[in-house]
Design goal:
Layout: H1 9-17, H2 22-31, E1 40-43, E2 52-55, E3 66-67, H3 86-102, H4 113-124, H5 127-132
Antiparallel strand pairs: 1-2, 2-3
Helix pairs in contact: 3-4
Length: 133
Protein backbone atom coordinates (compact mmCIF):
# COMPACT_ATOMS: atom_id res chain seq x y z
CA UNK A 1 0.00 0.00 0.00
CA UNK A 2 1.47 3.41 -0.89
CA UNK A 3 2.42 5.57 2.06
CA UNK A 4 -0.06 8.26 1.05
CA UNK A 5 -3.01 5.86 1.30
CA UNK A 6 -4.42 5.37 4.80
CA UNK A 7 -6.19 2.25 6.01
CA UNK A 8 -9.96 2.39 5.62
CA UNK A 9 -10.42 0.45 8.86
CA UNK A 10 -9.58 3.58 10.80
CA UNK A 11 -12.71 5.22 9.41
CA UNK A 12 -14.96 2.90 11.41
CA UNK A 13 -12.86 2.71 14.55
CA UNK A 14 -12.36 6.47 14.50
CA UNK A 15 -16.10 7.02 14.69
CA UNK A 16 -16.80 4.30 17.24
CA UNK A 17 -14.02 5.40 19.59
CA UNK A 18 -14.42 9.15 19.06
CA UNK A 19 -16.83 11.65 20.49
CA UNK A 20 -18.07 13.36 17.30
CA UNK A 21 -21.66 13.04 16.12
CA UNK A 22 -22.44 11.69 12.65
CA UNK A 23 -22.44 15.05 10.92
CA UNK A 24 -19.18 16.25 12.46
CA UNK A 25 -17.42 12.95 11.79
CA UNK A 26 -18.69 12.70 8.19
CA UNK A 27 -17.52 16.28 7.59
CA UNK A 28 -14.09 15.46 8.99
CA UNK A 29 -13.81 12.32 6.83
CA UNK A 30 -15.07 14.23 3.79
CA UNK A 31 -12.15 16.67 4.10
CA UNK A 32 -9.63 13.81 3.89
CA UNK A 33 -11.61 11.32 1.76
CA UNK A 34 -9.03 11.09 -1.01
CA UNK A 35 -6.37 9.83 1.42
CA UNK A 36 -8.07 6.40 1.25
CA UNK A 37 -8.74 3.77 -1.38
CA UNK A 38 -12.38 3.63 -2.45
CA UNK A 39 -14.84 3.53 0.43
CA UNK A 40 -18.43 4.09 1.50
CA UNK A 41 -19.18 5.01 5.11
CA UNK A 42 -22.48 5.50 6.92
CA UNK A 43 -22.27 6.98 10.42
CA UNK A 44 -24.91 8.17 12.85
CA UNK A 45 -26.92 7.50 15.95
CA UNK A 46 -29.31 4.62 16.60
CA UNK A 47 -32.35 6.90 16.52
CA UNK A 48 -31.58 7.81 12.91
CA UNK A 49 -31.73 11.53 13.62
CA UNK A 50 -28.16 12.28 12.66
CA UNK A 51 -27.05 9.80 9.97
CA UNK A 52 -24.64 10.69 7.17
CA UNK A 53 -23.09 8.99 4.17
CA UNK A 54 -19.64 9.86 2.92
CA UNK A 55 -17.59 8.15 0.24
CA UNK A 56 -14.94 8.81 -2.35
CA UNK A 57 -16.15 6.89 -5.38
CA UNK A 58 -17.77 8.29 -8.49
CA UNK A 59 -20.33 10.99 -7.81
CA UNK A 60 -20.38 10.38 -4.04
CA UNK A 61 -20.35 13.53 -1.99
CA UNK A 62 -19.43 16.00 -4.67
CA UNK A 63 -19.92 18.96 -2.35
CA UNK A 64 -20.40 17.54 1.14
CA UNK A 65 -21.48 14.41 3.02
CA UNK A 66 -25.09 13.40 2.45
CA UNK A 67 -27.60 13.47 5.30
CA UNK A 68 -29.82 10.39 5.20
CA UNK A 69 -33.53 10.86 5.76
CA UNK A 70 -35.29 9.02 8.56
CA UNK A 71 -37.64 6.29 7.37
CA UNK A 72 -36.18 6.07 3.87
CA UNK A 73 -34.61 2.86 2.60
CA UNK A 74 -31.17 3.21 1.05
CA UNK A 75 -29.11 0.63 -0.79
CA UNK A 76 -25.37 0.21 -0.90
CA UNK A 77 -23.24 -2.19 -2.94
CA UNK A 78 -19.73 -1.65 -4.31
CA UNK A 79 -20.55 1.67 -5.98
CA UNK A 80 -22.09 4.74 -4.41
CA UNK A 81 -25.20 5.00 -2.25
CA UNK A 82 -28.37 4.06 -4.15
CA UNK A 83 -26.60 3.01 -7.33
CA UNK A 84 -29.27 1.54 -9.60
CA UNK A 85 -27.73 -1.94 -9.67
CA UNK A 86 -30.34 -4.72 -9.91
CA UNK A 87 -29.32 -6.20 -6.55
CA UNK A 88 -29.62 -2.77 -4.89
CA UNK A 89 -33.02 -2.06 -6.44
CA UNK A 90 -34.35 -5.49 -5.50
CA UNK A 91 -32.94 -5.29 -1.97
CA UNK A 92 -34.44 -1.85 -1.39
CA UNK A 93 -37.85 -2.92 -2.70
CA UNK A 94 -37.87 -5.99 -0.48
CA UNK A 95 -36.80 -3.95 2.56
CA UNK A 96 -39.60 -1.46 1.89
CA UNK A 97 -42.09 -4.37 1.78
CA UNK A 98 -40.77 -5.72 5.09
CA UNK A 99 -40.92 -2.28 6.71
CA UNK A 100 -44.52 -1.83 5.52
CA UNK A 101 -45.50 -5.25 6.86
CA UNK A 102 -43.90 -4.68 10.28
CA UNK A 103 -45.07 -1.07 10.59
CA UNK A 104 -48.38 -2.37 11.92
CA UNK A 105 -46.65 -3.00 15.26
CA UNK A 106 -46.77 -0.17 17.77
CA UNK A 107 -44.15 0.77 20.35
CA UNK A 108 -46.05 -1.18 23.04
CA UNK A 109 -46.47 -4.33 20.92
CA UNK A 110 -44.22 -7.36 21.09
CA UNK A 111 -42.33 -7.22 17.81
CA UNK A 112 -41.71 -10.70 16.37
CA UNK A 113 -38.00 -10.00 16.05
CA UNK A 114 -37.02 -13.50 14.93
CA UNK A 115 -39.37 -13.42 11.95
CA UNK A 116 -38.26 -9.86 11.15
CA UNK A 117 -34.60 -10.89 11.21
CA UNK A 118 -35.37 -13.95 9.11
CA UNK A 119 -37.19 -11.84 6.51
CA UNK A 120 -34.32 -9.35 6.25
CA UNK A 121 -31.70 -12.08 5.98
CA UNK A 122 -33.69 -14.14 3.48
CA UNK A 123 -35.24 -11.42 1.33
CA UNK A 124 -32.84 -8.49 1.52
CA UNK A 125 -29.37 -9.88 2.04
CA UNK A 126 -29.98 -12.60 -0.51
CA UNK A 127 -31.39 -10.14 -3.05
CA UNK A 128 -28.13 -10.25 -5.06
CA UNK A 129 -28.80 -13.89 -5.83
CA UNK A 130 -32.31 -13.11 -7.01
CA UNK A 131 -30.96 -10.31 -9.21
CA UNK A 132 -28.78 -12.75 -11.12
CA UNK A 133 -31.69 -15.03 -12.10
Amino acid sequence: MPESVRTRGELVTGYLTGDLDGKAYATEVFARRFNYDGFNLVVGDARGENVYYVGNRGRANVDSPSRLAQGKVYGLANEVLDSPWPKVLIGKAKMEEIMAEYSRFGVDDDLPTFSLQEAVLRDVLHAPYDAEK
